[in-house]
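@channel sequence for tomorrow's demo:
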Amino acid sequence: MEVIYSIIDLLFWILGIYLAINCLYLGFFGLVGLLPLRKSKKEATQFRKIAVLFPTYQENIVIVDSVKTALKHQYNGTFEVVVIADGLQPETLATLKELGARVVEVFFEKSTKGKAMQFAMNQLNGEGFEIAVVLDVDNIMGDDCLSYLNGSFEQGRRVVQAHRVAKNMDSSFAFLDACNEEVNNHLFRKSHAVLGLSPALIGSGMAFEFAYFSDLLNNIGETVGEDKQLDFMIAKDKVSIAYLNDVYVYDEKIENAKVFTKQRTRWIASQVEFLKKYAFEGFVQLFKGNVEFFNKTLQTFLGPRMLLLALLFVMVIQSFLNPFGPPAAFWIGLFISLCLTLIISIPGRFYADKRLYIALFQIPRAMFGMVVALASIGKAKKSFMATPHSSKPVEKENI
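structure tokens (generated this afternoon):
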């Protein structure tokens, strides 16, 4: 019986060490993210030709509104709005063309964003484009976004990530999702940029040197997480990614638990995919001096924060009843450190908004949604699981 007790005790300690690594990683970058980041520059001697890509899957209403707004964007150079249309209705296609957007139709038995962009980029090759900007179907670029992106390429950058912020916070769940977006920006983008590391790509609001992006997509393969795959490919190439913390792209936030769960199912499936794919190679690259690649690998080991919060809360409770594993003080310390990390990662302006404190009551639903998402990751490999969108006005007070 003592052997069984020893094994149980060891398992609790292994779990404790894993959770401690999570909290230390997040806590370190949470503190670093409090440091300032220099302002972006839009001054340039050359205004590059830009392709603004909207990969679109069965979104017939919001894409029209997004394209209308994108076409009005002010940029001293030439840019073209390109809608990569997968499953759009004929009337929508006609409307987009009338507005002045280029429409590239794609037809796949199993749709992925990566395959759609690869097809479109191959269609655009040879037309003089120098920058490719990727937006989600509901995204709206902030003022001078293209000018700032061009300015970054003027400084020799090849890949740039803009600051994606909430377009809407009109429900408690949307506000909570907006907080989550800013926590991600703080922990995985701004803090990394402060240290000179590459920020994590987020799937939209990102820009690439056109030829390099085309090469990346031609080797991306089939994946549910094209942004993470690009992250690893870029890190392996030892290409630095720039982060423009003061250049905004507005993104619609999730309004209910059902859509939240669907979206997180795809995200967790993507993380598991790349954990399996790159766990070993991450250590190989570290010994080769590629710290960026190893850091990307470390991020795949991190648990989703909602699940970490829920698990640490459970571990605090059980520690008062269970004699095995670390003492109660250990679990309490980890729980408090994670809570403090999240508190400092949320922008200060949110604390002056009473909607934040109402949104906190949605956390248990979000935790449950993450548990369901974890149990449903197999579905993400069988279908595209696109997140539904609607047309929302931009709440400029979000920034």
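heads up for whoever presents: The mean pLDDT is 89.
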